[in-house]
Amino acid sequence: xxxxxxxxxxxxxxxxxxxxxxxxxxxxxxxxxxxxxxxxxxxxxxxxxxxxxxxxxxxxxxxxxxxxxxxxxxxxxxxxxxxxxxxxxxxxxxxxxxxxxxxxxxxxxxxxxxxxxxxxxxxxxxxxxxxxxxxxxxxxxxxxxxxxxxxxx
Length: 153
Prior knowledge:
single chain, 2,3-Dihydroxybiphenyl 1,2-Dioxygenase, domain 1, 4-stranded mixed β-sheet, two-stranded antiparallel sheet, 6 strands, about 25% helix, extended, disordered N terminus
């Protein structure tokens, strides 16, 4: 199995941690997607979306995350609360503009590896409380968290 690489911020090649995607002719795949789905700009309808209330991500260090997004990127912190699904967990929101928020939460006391069994159990509990069913490909269920999606197999 080949090891995937990507360019780091300084332009040097770094090794990725994880399995490589199956080999495919990307140029042919891109051409297929563009031909099947990409409309010329003048023919594209306006988006029916009005934004996303928030996208929630997990962070390891709340203060470092706030400092980066607020001080470096200019996304102000607008709300902080305790995660209702995990006592002691911080749930906070940053304004990314146009009525959209970027949210983060931490899992203090759990292993910092998002693939750990304890972290996965807490995330599954969070999804269950939110009323989201866990489904999807078996590999996704084994590797982490999968939830309802129209393309889930």
